[in-house]
TrEMBL record:
Its cofactor is Zn(2+). CDD domains: S1_YloQ_GTPase (cd04466), YjeQ_EngC (cd01854). Its main location: cytoplasm. One of several proteins that assist in the late maturation steps of the functional core of the 30S ribosomal subunit. Helps release RbfA from mature subunits. May play a role in the assembly of ribosomal proteins into the subunit. Circularly permuted GTPase that catalyzes slow GTP hydrolysis, GTPase activity is stimulated by the 30S ribosomal subunit. Transmembrane segments: none annotated. This is Small ribosomal subunit biogenesis GTPase RsgA.
Amino acid sequence: MQGQVIQLLSGYYDIAVGDQVIRTRAAGNLRQKKVSPIAGDFVEFTPAPDNGELGYLTRVLPRRNALVRPPVANVDQAMVITAAAEPTFATNLLDRFLVYLAGQRIAGVITVTKTDLLDDTAFARLQAVMNGYERIGYQVHLPRQPFGAADLEALRSVLNGRLTIFTGQTGAGKSTLLNHLVPDLSLATAAISKSLNRGKHTTRKTTLYRAYGGLVADTPGFSSLELLDVETDALRDRFPEFVAVAGDCKFRGCQHLQEPHCAVKAAVAAGQIMQSRYDNYCQFHAELAARKPVYDKKKR
Ligand SMILES: Nc1nc2c(ncn2[C@@H]2O[C@H](COP(=O)(O)OP(=O)(O)OP(=O)(O)O)[C@@H](O)[C@H]2O)c(=O)[nH]1
Ligand SMILES: [Zn+2]
């Protein structure tokens, strides 16, 4: 049988199959292969025999992606929680998150919080910026807070059929939004923490919760330190709107920096590519170039 690991507890693997959750243990040969299943893994398992023993997880299927912190595999999308204010909105940090997600092949769903802190002028300005991200192809949610029922409905429908992580800058409002969207989640998390306190040797890893037809990871994502995890020359591939026009650059391998007849720079000049995206690209490129020796050492 096949299913998806939603929780790891002291050597047990809880596997979701349809509406059921089946507890298994790792088969002996799986341990020899040194494959450690993590939450989100699609796996094969032998169901429990009738004698009350547990079934065995026998094989981890190939992963589409795997995050280290939190340890989750096969993530479909990340809600990139972005504050409209407090902390001040900056495309620089948003673009860093999007660069990271593109590398992991995780769709970014930009979700703006704290819009109640903006006056109408500032809100309209932010809307214009977000229209730009929509044109690139990102899904954007920019509700005028406080949330209306329709806003919550739209956000919840994003979860359907997907494995979603919540990420964003510290203080952006991840926990607040998550609790709002999935009220059961905080309850479930509290219940698990309480039951685990009884067993001393219990280690708790990431748990996935079912919510609105999908799975949600309970731990928020990575730190901004590890967001630029890309080789300098490959950074351009993480800007989809650059890739879309780069075929028209004069030079193959154009980095869209000093090269003449660059289609990306032309698109920026024509207002088709956001100036802020291009500026952030140049800044990230410079940052990566400056730390290149470290990367080279790591590769060898
Ligand atoms: N005005 C306003 N404040 C908000 C909103 N959402 C969250 N906050 C406040 O912003 C602060 C941070 O919110 P959290 O939900 O803890 O943010 P977080 O992203 O989970 O923060 P970390 O746990 O540090 O990663 C809290 O004081 C919240 O009350 C919002 O929509 N409007
Ligand atoms: Zn170019």
